[in-house]
């Protein structure tokens, strides 16, 4: 009954329709079931989806939005279901697959095709000069890594990447291994994701995380959704917004695009949502120009000051920097707000009115804010708004960076960070008994440059798809190819696996849906969601192959092989009993006291601003900041391109080729443009064009689609457009690639298909 995995359709099958105004509802349920049955078959689909996000099941790896306490029978989310189907697939990329296909042949296929080959089943090795990956034993694989690491001139010549699905236990063990080996080179997907949020929040409120819980969302009277597409990327957030609206809360969306879920939402949880008209979520939509957010919030803050709609008592008690901010906004050089934002005075006023009139405001944001050159300053300006209104540390109000990967926040809490604080390292030393290195390590972009320049020779990845996720695909490929050894711990094959160093290893691991038996019994792991709630996760499915090992086991076995008894960490015991790792976490990381016991019920980590209105900045106060607005220069005839996700992908994993809400079918190489820009550039609807960045970077053959987006703003999917993102263009202060403001021009396609 299982057919072949799906193949790519030809270019000519791409279809464009009117964008949808509704999100979810019946089409969402059907789409999830179709993906489920295609990947898993009907029985497994039913059994697996029933376990998703239930209190004794596994944590959904779809996104980091928290789970409500009272679960629906199945907290249904189309894209969560697709994420699960993708992992629980019956297809296998086994030794026969790698014998049939050379590395070069695999690399010539699309990301969609590569991902659809299915799960890796055993360790595979690509020997120097070889054309095909071949099976290798676990022991021999660890030996290859151990020998290459031992041959390095310094531990800093290796870099250890982490994607954001890795559990707390695996992440803690991994960073302990890397630091015991002797380096802080721990880049992670966060460097490309919410790093700007972390930096801005650390500076202003003293902790790089959000300050709200799900209960706050339920109590808010105003929710700002800025630079985020929850209908696709955090679908369960729509249920929370819907509940807030039912109690009379207002929702504002600030986005160059009118994303479907925010205009109308048919809750698939409720019969009403399946048959009825759904809820109109956004009361106000501001079609902002790409990168206009800082100018917008500065204008709002100026208006709040002018009409004295600020919370003086709060500012006096808790904030620093008020006078400087007031002087800057009221007497500094005025910014041309309408040029920067594309919004008119009435729109800015409407937003100001809502903010001034709200007693409980929550600001939510995601990649639309974090991936620009001025991202840190932009987020700081939004923190200014919230502090001026006293919107931190009270119920129903606060800051809510909505995280991406399901455990990206937990991985950082566990110490996956190239710039650890001394306080963190001191505690780690106390808990594990060895002296970790103190010099800061390399982030993602710095790692790419170091590999390119030959300063880093070994690349190890705990999950993810470094090549396709990183900027400047061409430069990153060259960097990986210069390595002595590249190693990936992964569930499924991807493009990074076929863009390799002199030799390469693929180490297949258990996914979150799968039973993890070690030391004679089932182990559980833990994750932290976007609102700092920690809970357990236990896989229920039989593993895709009996050769798979858990990430925890792989890390600990590798550490034992590489480090011998250089440090006194009981790696072997950790590999067989994750409770022991949790005991070490409890000693090393504040907030995890009595971890094993408290994990049964789950718990929320402390947040000084949220819980006690305490700010752990240098001054002990929340900092209002002065931010200088500098627009991105876009020359005549150029466009500002944002690279974003379709409804049918998980980052670089392509579930399918449709973007239902935006009306795109059976293809991904589209560029969405304002109709007036299409005219002005002398293009035609449906023309095939190349997108060309600075320095001649080119992404070939995109279909022009007229779309409701401000003048001068283009949108196209990631990772097809990553070739255009310059390696040297990163956010000031956070180093995040500027994937949402890439300057491009559009040219007639050079090559035919
Ligand atoms: N199904 C699914 N779920 C996912 C993911 C996935 O790929 N698929 N990825 C996960 C990850 S790792 C992450 S980080 C999150 C990402 O979640 P999102 O941040 O929602 O993802 P993007 O598709 O990058 O969407 C960015 C949004 O910002 C808007 N935007 C772009 N530029 C600007 C700007 O300058 N200003 C404003 N105000 N808006 C702007 C875009 O129009 C778009 O709506 O989702 C997570 N969840
Ligand atoms: N142009 C552009 N680039 C971007 C972005 C953008 O918006 N625009 N977004 C950025 C963001 S927000 C992020 S978070 C990064 C994402 O960057 P990554 O996290 O590196 O990429 P993913 O596509 O999520 O990784 C998918 C791979 O992870 C592996 N995998 C899946 N599950 C598991 C597991 O349980 N364990 C292990 N070991 N491996 C597993 C599979 O092999 C799969 O192929 O991309 C960034 N890049
Ligand atoms: Mo992300």
UniProtKB/TrEMBL annotation:
SUPFAM superfamilies: ADC-like (SSF50692), Formate dehydrogenase/DMSO reductase, domains 1-3 (SSF53706). GO terms for molecular function: 4 iron, 4 sulfur cluster binding; formate dehydrogenase (NAD+) activity; molybdenum ion binding; molybdopterin cofactor binding. The keyword Transcription regulation does not apply. The keyword DNA-binding does not apply. One of its GO terms (cellular component) is membrane. InterPro entries: Asp_de-COase-like_dom_sf, MopB_CT_YdeP, MoPterin_dinucl-bd_dom, Mopterin_OxRdtase, Mopterin_OxRdtse_a_bac, Prok_molybdopt-oxidoreductase, YdeP_MopB. Residues 639-742 form the Molybdopterin dinucleotide-binding domain. This is Molybdopterin-dependent oxidoreductase alpha subunit. Residues 517-527 have a biased composition (Basic and acidic residues). Residues 119-560 form the Molybdopterin oxidoreductase domain. It holds the Pfam family Molydop_binding. It comes from Solirubrobacter pauli. Belongs to the prokaryotic molybdopterin-containing oxidoreductase family. Residues 517-542 are annotated as: Disordered. Its cofactor is Mo-bis(molybdopterin guanine dinucleotide); [4Fe-4S] cluster. Keywords: 4Fe-4S, Iron, Iron-sulfur, Metal-binding, Molybdenum, Oxidoreductase. The lineage of its organism: Bacteria, Bacillati, Actinomycetota, Thermoleophilia, Solirubrobacterales.
């Amino acid at each position: 009954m299982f057919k072949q995995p799906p193949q790519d359709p030809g270019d000519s099958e791409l279809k464009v329709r009117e964008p949808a105004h509704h999100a979810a509802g019946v089409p969402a349920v059907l789409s999830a079931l179709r993906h489920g049955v295609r990947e898993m078959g009907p029985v497994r689909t039913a059994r697996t989806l029933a376990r998703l996000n239930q209190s004794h099941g596994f944590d959904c790896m779809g996104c980091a939005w928290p789970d409500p306490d009272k679960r629906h029978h199945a907290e249904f989310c189309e894209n969560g279901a697709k994420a699960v189907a993708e992992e629980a697939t019956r297809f296998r990329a086994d030794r026969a697959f790698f014998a049939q296909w050379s590395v070069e042949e695999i690399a010539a296929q699309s990301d969609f095709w590569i991902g659809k080959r299915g799960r890796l089943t055993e360790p595979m090795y690509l020997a120097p000069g070889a054309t095909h990956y071949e099976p290798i034993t676990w022991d021999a694989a660890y030996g290859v890594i151990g020998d290459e690491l031992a041959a390095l001139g310094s531990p800093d010549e290796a870099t250890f990447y982490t994607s954001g699905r890795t559990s707390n236990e695996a992440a803690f063990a991994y960073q302990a291994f890397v630091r015991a080996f002797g380096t802080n080179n721990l880049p992670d997907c966060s460097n490309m994701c919410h790093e700007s949020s972390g930096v801005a929040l650390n500076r202003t409120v003293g902790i790089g995380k959000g300050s709200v819980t799900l209960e706050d969302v339920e109590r808010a009277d105003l929710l700002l959704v800025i630079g985020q597409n929850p209908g696709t990327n955090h679908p369960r957030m729509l249920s929370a917004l819907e509940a807030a609206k039912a109690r009379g809360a207002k929702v504002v969306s600030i986005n160059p695009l009118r994303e479907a879920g925010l205009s109308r939402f048919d809750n698939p949880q409720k019969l009403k949502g399946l048959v009825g008209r759904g809820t109109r979520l956004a009361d106000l939509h501001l079609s902002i120009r790409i990168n206009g957010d800082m100018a917008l919030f500065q204008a709002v803050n100026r208006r709040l000051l002018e009409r004295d709609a600020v919370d003086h008592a709060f500012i006096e008690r808790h904030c620093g920097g008020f006078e400087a901010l007031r002087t800057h906004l009221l007497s500094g050089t005025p910014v041309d707000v309408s040029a920067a934002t594309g919004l008119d005075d009435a729109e800015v006023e409407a937003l100001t009115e809502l903010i001034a009139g709200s007693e409980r405001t929550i600001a939510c944001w995601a990649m639309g804010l974090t991936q620009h050159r001025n991202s840190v300053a932009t987020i700081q300006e939004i923190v200014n708004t919230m502090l001026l209104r006293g919107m931190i540390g009270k119920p129903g109000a606060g800051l809510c960076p909505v995280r991406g990967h399901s455990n990206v926040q937990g991985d950082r809490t566990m110490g996956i960070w190239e710039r650890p604080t001394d306080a963190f390292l001191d505690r780690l030393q106390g808990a594990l008994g060895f002296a970790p290195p103190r010099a800061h390590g390399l982030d993602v972009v710095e790692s790419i440059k170091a590999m390119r320049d030959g300063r880093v020779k070994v690349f190890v990845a705990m999950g993810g798809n470094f090549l396709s996720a990183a900027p400047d695909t061409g430069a990153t490929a060259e960097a990986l190819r210069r390595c002595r050894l590249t190693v990936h711990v992964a569930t499924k094959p991807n493009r990074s696996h076929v863009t390799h160093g002199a030799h390469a290893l693929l180490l297949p691991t258990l996914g979150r849906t799968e039973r993890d038996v070690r030391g004679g019994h089932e182990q559980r792991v833990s994750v932290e969601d976007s609102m700092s709630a920690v809970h357990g996760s236990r896989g229920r499915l039989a593993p895709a192959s009996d050769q798979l090992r858990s990430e925890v086991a792989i890390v600990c076995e590798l550490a034992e092989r590489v480090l011998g008894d250089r440090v006194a960490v009981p790696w072997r015991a950790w590999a067989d009993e994750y409770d022991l790792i949790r005991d070490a976490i409890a000693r090393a990381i504040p907030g995890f006291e009595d971890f094993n016991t408290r994990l049964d019920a789950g718990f929320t980590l402390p947040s000084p601003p949220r819980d006690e209105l305490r700010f752990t900045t240098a001054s002990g106060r929340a900092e209002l900041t002065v931010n200088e607005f500098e627009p991105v220069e876009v020359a005549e005839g150029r466009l500002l391109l944002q690279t974003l996700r379709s409804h049918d992908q998980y980052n670089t994993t392509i579930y399918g080729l449709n973007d239902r809400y935006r009306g795109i079918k059976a293809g991904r190489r589209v560029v969405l443009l304002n109709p007036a820009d299409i005219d002005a550039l002398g293009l035609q609807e449906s023309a095939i064009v190349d997108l060309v960045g600075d320095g001649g970077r080119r992404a070939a053959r995109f279909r022009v689609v007229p779309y409701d987006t401000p003048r001068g703003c283009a949108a196209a999917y990631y990772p097809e457009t990553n070739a255009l993102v310059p390696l040297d263009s990163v956010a000031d202060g956070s180093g995040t690639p500027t994937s949402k403001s890439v300057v491009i021009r559009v040219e007639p396609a050079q090559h035919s298909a």
